[in-house]
Amino acid sequence: KLVSLGALAASTAHEMGTPLGTIQLIVSDLEENKITKQDIDVLLQQVARCKKALAEMSTTAGELHNENDGVVNFEEYLDQLLESWQKTRPNVHLSKNLLGDKSARVVASKTLSKALINLLDNAADASPESVLIEANWELDKAQLSIIDHGNGIDPKLIKEICVRPYSTKPDGIGLGAFLAHEIIQRLGGAIKLSNRKVGGVETLITLPLQYVK
């Protein structure tokens, strides 16, 4: 439950980071009397996003004793997760390459969703213009690659990111990848980060799946 709550808090911090940044920019314009009606509308939208994130955190925290939402179709689960995430990062071009057995199922826990969202957010922070996700799965196992086009990670530190809190961002708390690793490992999976020769980082996620005979 502590790991689940930590993942929930880290994900909420990610979700609120972008709207709070937008609010900060608009408030700066307000100080200089440059505010417009459109800016006010955006400001209200971003405040609503923050309130929604906090409300979801409060609701989900109260349901951690029964966090599994059941076994669902893996392809549909992944599609819905990516579609929902894309709405929070509309300026990021998300490329998808998804291929696998349509009979595969996954235990759709809220903490798994938060873990994957944290990893997607990290990729988008490193590569704001575009992120690529590739997924291949069989009946009992899935492999997901989240690929960014950023500057990569210091090879001396890349092995430590998932085993202790670590962040390269000035205002980062470094819990996203760490908690995602703990959650996915607890579910029987694994995460591996590696620098790509052409630049950027590949986050390889292995997940156990289920299927209905």
Provide the residue-averaged pLDDT: 79
Number of E-type strands: 8
Strand order of the largest sheet: 2-4-5-7-6
Shape: globular
Q: Give the fraction of residues assigned to helices.
A: 40-55%
Number of helices: 5
Largest beta-sheet details: 5 strands, mixed
Question: Nutshell version of this structure?
Answer:
The protein is an alpha+beta fold. It is built from five helices and eight strands; from the N terminus they run ααβαββαββαβββ.
Structure, described:
- The protein has five helices and eight strands; from the N terminus they run ααβαββαββαβββ.
- With 213 residues, it is α+β, with helices and mostly antiparallel strands.
- The strands form two sheets. Strands 2-4-5-7-6 form a five-stranded mixed sheet, covered by helices on one side. Strands 1-3-8 form a three-stranded antiparallel sheet.
- Strand 4 and strand 5 (141-148) form a beta hairpin.
Structural key phrases:
5 helices, 46% helix, alpha+beta, 213 residues
Secondary structure elements and pairings:
Elements: H1 2-31, H2 37-61, E1 68-73, H3 74-88, E2 93-100, E3 104-109, H4 110-126, E4 130-137, E5 141-148, H5 176-186, E6 190-195, E7 201-208, E8 210-211
Parallel strand pairs: 2-4
Antiparallel strand pairs: 1-3, 3-8, 4-5, 5-7, 6-7
